[in-house]
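hey can u run this one w/ alpha-D-ribofuranose bound, need the structure tokens asap thx
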Amino acid sequence: QLRMGRSTTVGMIVLDVGNPFFAELARGAEDAALEHGLAIILGNSNHSISRERTYVDLFNERRVAGLLISPTSDDLTALEPLADQGTTVVLVDQRPDDSRFSSVSVDDVYGGRLAAQHLLEIQRRRLAFVGGPSSIPQVRDRLDGFRAVVSEAGAPARVEAFEGSALTVLEGRRIGEQLAARPAADRPDAVFAANDLLAIGLEQAFLMSGTIRVPQDVAILGYDDIAFAQSAIVPLSSIRQPAYELGHRSVQTLARQFTGSDRAPVQLEFLPELVQRQSTAPA
Ligand code: RIB
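ok here u go:
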């Protein structure tokens, strides 16, 4: 039976420690770790599978009691050695297909559906989705939900999807400048971004072009509702994920599996919610 105490160390690997979403998630995890007498070692995979493998091996060598991981993809084979030797693994921000591992995540298909419903409600029809690499399951799910509502609505709406190379402000700026360079008739009248960093970059590019008003010409909707969303020049509407709660509950789930007799994996799933601000105000 594992002794809970100062020496009990947990490894945590997040996708992008520079993204405020994961900083907030780590804050929730760290608070819960303190409550449970656990120490956390934080690793940043930075969306790189090789970096993720390095951290998994490092945590394996250090014989951590548990691992919290937001995986870079849905290929979880690298985690098997840990599970085989009894390390408790909890997936964070992603729900696995198989239930070998516990998970604490958000229903991102539902989040994408909320986004399309909102943009159709404010009478936008020329919709664009700006995402990151489609290898990221969270991004894929958001686009799937978005497209599903648009096709169900039967509205004469269409979706133009852009696959960015990263989920960063800089990438949002790059794609935003491409859109701003188009003739007005060829531009979308609303953009759904896979996260707030992309949305903030898009908004900066539109406003700096001097020819696009937000939301009058193009509405912008983000995802995560990071603290900065409300202080963007045009306050950003966003599909909110409970980042702090995700982190806090993932450590609780881990601790319960350490100590509890019931080691059966559990899947906890949260629903995101729409936070409407000026960037999608009805025209
Ligand atoms: O960094 C990748 C994105 O996936 C974050 O913004 C958050 O939305 C996570 O789910």
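The chain has a mean pLDDT of 93. anyway lmk if its weird
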